[in-house]
What does this fold into?
Amino acid sequence: MIGRVFLIYLALIGLAHAGLEQEIEQQQEIENQLKLELDKQIKITKQAYQDVMDFISDAPMNRDEQMKRLIDAEIEWNVFIEKICLLEGIESINTRAELANKLQCMLKRHKEKENFYKSII
It folds into this structure.
């Protein structure tokens, strides 16, 4: 009787372990996909920024001041994205979802930045 209970116990532990491995694999796939999407979005956002810089470089008035402000805004915006995504992910600290949540946040914020740059032109 004790032997059967022990075997059932071992089988359940094995099933739980297999489920955990599958969950970790799925989480890693999600993170890898989000990383690819984020890299693509950052490139798109950088191009939108460059388009605005090109547009401003042709400005007849206050060109230098406009470019300086845009450069400063870009730097601060990147700091903002990093900090806001850390804050938004506070509920998932030390969980498997922490990185995925941060990547989703960064993807969203970079899309917002791209839209802003496109609205300037």
Remarks:
- The chain has a mean pLDDT of 86.
- The first helix runs from residue 2 to 57.
- Residues 56 and 67 are 7 Å apart (CA to CA).
- The radius of gyration is 23 Å.
